[in-house]
């Protein structure tokens, strides 16, 4: 699947991280992991080292592996079977010379590509 987000240049990194977090949490929810055991309100802003350790332990318990290739992609496996993949977003900077605020003359188009078995497609995951 593909997703496109428009953002201020200053927000690119935060949006990438937040979208990746939401993707991982949505896959874990689809897998039926009881995320409420970790926190009643698991959000990107509340996610800290303690919650990360708890999440890792919960995933181990349910034989879910999350493999992050820094700066590239994230793969999620259930019992050694690939069930989801997140590709590093690509960014396109766009110039809007008619923007009234000089700081808003350039903004980013964040393009996200991911695959999941929960999409209901018969396509193979991207390589």
Please explain how this structure is put together.
It is a single chain. This protein has 127 residues and is an alpha+beta fold. The chain has one domain. The protein has two helices and six strands, in the order E-H-H-E-E-E-E-E. It has helices at residues 12-30, 49-61; strands at residues 2-8, 64-69, 73-78, 81-87, 90-95, 106-116. Strands 1, 2, 3, 4, 5 and 6 form a six-stranded antiparallel β-sheet that branches. A hairpin with a 2-residue loop joins strand 3 and strand 4 (81-87). The longest helix is centred in the N-terminal third of the chain and has 19 residues, at 12-30.
Number of distinct helices:
2
The share of residues in helices is: 25-40%
Radius of gyration: 17 Å
Task: Give the CA-based shape.
Answer: elongated
- SS content category: alpha+beta
The profile of the biggest β sheet is: 6 strands, antiparallel
**Hey, roughly how much beta strand do the residues contain?**
25-35%
* Secondary-structure element series: EHHEEEEE
| Strand element count | 6
Number of domains: 1
- Low-confidence parts, pLDDT < 50 over ≥5 residues? none
Distance between the termini: 14 Å
Mean pLDDT score: 89
Which features would summarize this protein structure in a list?
127 residues, alpha+beta, 6-stranded antiparallel beta sheet, 2 helices, elongated
């Amino acid at each position: 699947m593909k997703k496109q987000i428009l953002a201020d240049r200053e927000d690119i990194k935060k949006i990438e991280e937040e979208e990746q977090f939401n993707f991982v949490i949505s896959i874990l929810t689809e897998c039926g992991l009881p995320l409420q055991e970790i926190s009643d309100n698991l959000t990107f802003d509340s996610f800290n080292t303690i919650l990360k350790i708890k999440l890792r332990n919960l995933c181990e318990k349910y034989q879910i592996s999350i493999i992050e290739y820094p700066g590239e992609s994230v793969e999620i496996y259930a019992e050694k079977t690939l069930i989801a993949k997140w590709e590093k977003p690509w960014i396109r900077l766009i110039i809007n010379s008619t923007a009234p605020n000089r700081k808003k003359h350039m903004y980013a188009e964040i393009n996200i590509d991911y695959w999941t078995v929960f999409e209901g497609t018969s396509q193979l995951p991207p390589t």
